[in-house]
């Protein structure tokens, strides 16, 4: 009986002991979430700094005799100290703990500490996109809003942080809370004096990713050109971006076909990024913070075209200081206003530009011995942006823009004297709106939700008349409107970077529509088309050791209307041989569902219309791209050599006159070449030399390739800038071997090389409250007669007339900021 009673008591004691045992089984869970769960389960009060508990992740699989031992163990794992005040558990920083407790035994695992935050400027708090953070063997890249998130096994880490145009920061950082890292400008003067007329980030971060160049506004040095075509003046200096030809509707990047490049400004697609005339760009220079050019092989996370991508990040603005800026030239005025609505939390930016009558027109006109079309234009643009910073770290922004272009071309030369007239009038309106919300759920990574709407409506009126014995007779006329709209809703998530992986995933919905109303000699043609699709995308940036980064990615477009899914795998690899040498290569497959179709009228004049893919003959565009190159940096020298190959299929063109051949044709394109860039920095002075060689060809209904209209064999460019405290000067020269049909004669096979030299100088006046810059810029200093690409006109009598490029054009300007 006694034995049975003893066994019963022992079993009861073991049962009660088991009931009081606290079992912890967590794998890489945030300490704060673990403690809150235990507090609810065991009904105890807790006091802890959220920043400390959010910064540590715990992994444990162990039993404890009571809740006090369990909480003490969790605190010790994270290098914290536990005190008990009455019935309240109080967890605080342990001043004696410099590293987390790793523990002993197989059930205790090295803990992880979260580092998350943003990189910004110290003066106005502007974020620094795409900054590089070096943490031991780990290389972390911040996102487009300067944010980063990664974990390590140490409570304190030595971080090296770098952003283009800013000083390298090497500092010891402790994990805990939201980090705000500040970088000082590399050249303080360029932060204090913002050069608005022709600023150029000629210190672009070349090959930061395969096939890419990144630009920061603080890295700008002075360059000849007009401020109001900021993007083109910057990009044209680099290899692969064609400066010859002065294309008025699209960039030509590595021989890209019209419509195959995408320009994104805060998520808004700019269908006409350079305005109708290259003298003025659509994007207001006051609002540009960061620019990234992908000449080929862009990531699967963004981009919607088969050739190139330009991503422009707008300024967030100052949240604590009102700013106003004014730019005036002899033909255009621009202004900028920044107003903090709620200090440190809400601000509003407004910018605009407007052309007016050139009250001091010093540009030259061509002689009347040649037939040329002389363009003129009018331009107006408005851009507004509202930015919000929440205490949680969340960010919200609203952006809107509207531009209006009016373009006219008049005929000069013998044809006008012979009473033959060609009139061209064009009007285009571009609108865009975007909303972006960035989540502050930092423990699980960085999430973004965005919605963007873009629209573009060009209208063109074209007519030919002849004046015979004071009687005007119309030979032919045409007019058309070709509207395009696109709405994109997108969700993306960047997981916390841990171990060797940085994973990003996302999904988007895109609705595209186009319309055409075409009248050709009283014959009317019109249509409306639309297409919707869902895209899934992701990539994993894998770091292999300290010297190699391998990035596989995949994009899948699901299009119900086409009853098909489009898989687009992409790969990239970068290898650092040593601090001076970097090698890289990439490959990718791309699809495009909204594109331009080339049109050819009865006289062989080229045009284009926006179209969407369908399940009949307008097939989605496809491309395969490969890039390989190396980057060498030593002291103030930088050399980049990059080769590329592109194959495109389903290129489309339509003949407007049946007599010219099949009305609709599908074709293929091919481009390959080499880009070389050499740069030397001498204190504040810079020299940049670039060379491009390549071949661009196409074929439609033939077995053999022929040269494409935008083919140019060679292009050489150099820029030299001097930058003193008060005075800046720059000279730029561009040589291009020319395009087929770019000659000044009527021969369609003639070729004339392209030459253009630009110069500029500026003097800066400063005081504590107001900055004043006075300067001049001269385009085409030697008045070379150059021809615009794809702007030739074939007349009814069989003659061909080209459109004149920018002539000798001086500009006087002043910039005022306060």
Automatic annotation (TrEMBL):
Segment forming the signal sequence: 1-18
Family named by the database record: Belongs to the TonB-dependent receptor family.
Listed InterPro entries: Beta-barrel_TonB (IPR000531), Beta-barrel_TonB_sf (IPR036942), Plug_dom (IPR012910), TonB-dep_rcpt-like (IPR039426)
Superkingdom, natural source: Bacteria
Protein name, UniProt field: TonB-dependent receptor
Coiled-coil ranges per UniProt: none
Subcellular location field: Cell outer membrane
UniProt source species: Luteibaculum oceani
Membrane topology: Multi-pass membrane protein
Cellular component, GO, one term: cell outer membrane
Principal location class: membrane
TonB-dependent receptor-like beta-barrel domain segment(s): 383-781
Signal among keywords: yes
Keywords: Cell outer membrane, Membrane, Receptor, Signal, TonB box, Transmembrane, Transmembrane beta strand, Transport
TonB-dependent receptor plug domain ranges (all copies): 234-304
């Amino acid at each position: 009986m006694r034995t049975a009673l003893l066994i019963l008591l022992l079993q009861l004691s073991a049962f009660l002991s088991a009931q009081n045992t606290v079992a912890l089984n967590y794998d890489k869970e945030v300490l704060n979430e673990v403690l809150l769960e235990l507090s609810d389960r065991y009904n105890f009060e807790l006091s802890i700094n959220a920043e400390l508990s959010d910064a540590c992740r715990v992994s444990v699989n162990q039993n404890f005799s009571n809740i006090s031992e369990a909480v003490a163990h969790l605190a010790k794992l994270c290098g914290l100290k536990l005190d008990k005040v009455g019935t309240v558990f109080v967890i605080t920083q342990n001043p004696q703990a410099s590293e987390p407790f790793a523990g002993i035994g197989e059930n205790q695992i090295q803990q992880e500490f979260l580092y998350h935050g943003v990189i910004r400027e110290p003066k106005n708090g502007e974020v620094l996109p795409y900054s590089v953070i070096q943490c031991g063997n780990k290389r972390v890249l911040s996102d487009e809003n300067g944010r980063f998130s990664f974990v390590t096994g140490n409570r304190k880490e030595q971080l090296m942080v770098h952003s283009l145009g800013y000083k390298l920061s090497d500092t010891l950082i402790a994990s805990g809370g939201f980090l705000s890292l500040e970088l000082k400008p590399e050249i303080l003067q360029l932060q204090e004096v913002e050069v608005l007329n022709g600023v150029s980030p000629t210190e672009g971060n070349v090959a930061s990713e395969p096939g890419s160049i990144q630009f920061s506004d603080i890295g700008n040095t002075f360059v000849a050109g007009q401020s109001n075509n900021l993007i083109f003046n910057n990009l044209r200096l680099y290899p692969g971006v064609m400066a010859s030809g002065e294309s008025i509707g699209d960039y030509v990047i590595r021989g890209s076909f019209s419509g195959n490049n995408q320009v994104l400004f805060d998520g808004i697609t700019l269908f006409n990024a350079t305005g109708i005339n290259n003298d003025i760009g659509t994007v207001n220079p006051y609002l540009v913070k960061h620019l990234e050019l992908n000449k080929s092989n862009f990531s699967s996370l963004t981009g919607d075209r088969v050739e190139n991508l330009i991503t422009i990040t707008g300024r967030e603005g100052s949240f604590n200081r009102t700013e106003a800026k004014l730019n005036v030239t002899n033909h255009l005025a621009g202004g900028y206003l920044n107003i903090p609505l709620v200090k440190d939390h809400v601000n509003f930016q407004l910018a605009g530009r407007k052309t007016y009558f050139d009250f001091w027109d010093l540009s030259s006109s061509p002689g009347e011995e040649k037939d040329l079309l002389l363009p003129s234009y009018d331009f107006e643009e408005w851009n507004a942006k509202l930015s919000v910073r929440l205490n949680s770290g969340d960010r919200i922004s609203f952006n809107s823009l509207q531009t209006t272009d009016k373009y006219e071309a008049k005929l000069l030369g013998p044809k006008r004297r012979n009473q033959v007239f060609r009139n061209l009038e064009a009007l285009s309106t571009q609108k865009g709106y975007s909303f972006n919300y960035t989540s502050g759920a930092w423990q699980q990574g960085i999430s973004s939700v965005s919605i963007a709407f873009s629209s573009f409506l060009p209208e063109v009126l074209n007519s030919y008349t002849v004046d015979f014995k004071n009687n005007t007779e119309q030979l032919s006329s045409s007019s058309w409107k070709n509207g395009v709209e696109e709405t994109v809703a997108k969700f993306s998530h960047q997981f916390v970077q841990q171990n060797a992986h940085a994973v990003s995933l996302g999904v988007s919905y895109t609705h595209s529509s186009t319309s055409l109303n075409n009248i050709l000699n009283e014959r009317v043609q019109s249509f409306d088309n639309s297409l919707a699709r869902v895209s899934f995308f992701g990539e994993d940036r894998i770091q292999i050791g300290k010297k190699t980064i391998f990035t596989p990615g995949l994009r899948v477009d699901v299009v119900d209307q086409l009853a098909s899914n489009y898989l687009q795998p992409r790969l990239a690899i970068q290898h650092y041989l040593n601090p001076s040498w970097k090698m890289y290569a990439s490959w990718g497959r791309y699809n495009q569902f909204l594109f331009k179709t080339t049109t050819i009228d009865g006289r062989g004049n080229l045009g284009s219309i926006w179209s969407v893919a369908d399940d009949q003959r307008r097939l989605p565009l496809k491309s395969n791209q490969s890039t390989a190159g190396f980057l060498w940096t030593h002291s103030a020298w930088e050399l980049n050599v990059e080769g590329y190959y592109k194959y495109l299929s389903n290129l489309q063109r339509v003949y407007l006159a049946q007599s010219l051949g099949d009305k609709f044709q599908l074709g293929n394109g091919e481009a390959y070449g080499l880009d070389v860039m050499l740069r030397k920095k001498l204190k504040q002075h810079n020299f940049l030399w670039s060379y491009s060689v390549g071949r661009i060809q196409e074929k439609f209904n033939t077995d053999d390739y022929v040269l494409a209209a935008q083919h140019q064999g060679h292009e050489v460019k150099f820029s030299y800038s001097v930058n003193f405290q008060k005075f800046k000067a720059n000279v730029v020269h561009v040589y291009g071997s020319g395009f087929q049909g770019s000659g000044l004669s009527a021969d369609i096979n003639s070729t004339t090389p392209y030459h253009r030299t630009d110069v500029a100088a500026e003097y800066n006046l400063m005081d504590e409250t107001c900055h004043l810059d006075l300067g001049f810029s001269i385009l085409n200093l030697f008045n070379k007669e150059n021809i615009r690409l794809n702007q030739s006109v074939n007349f009814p009598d069989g003659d061909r007339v080209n459109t004149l490029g920018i002539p000798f054009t001086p500009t006087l300007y002043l910039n005022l900021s306060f």
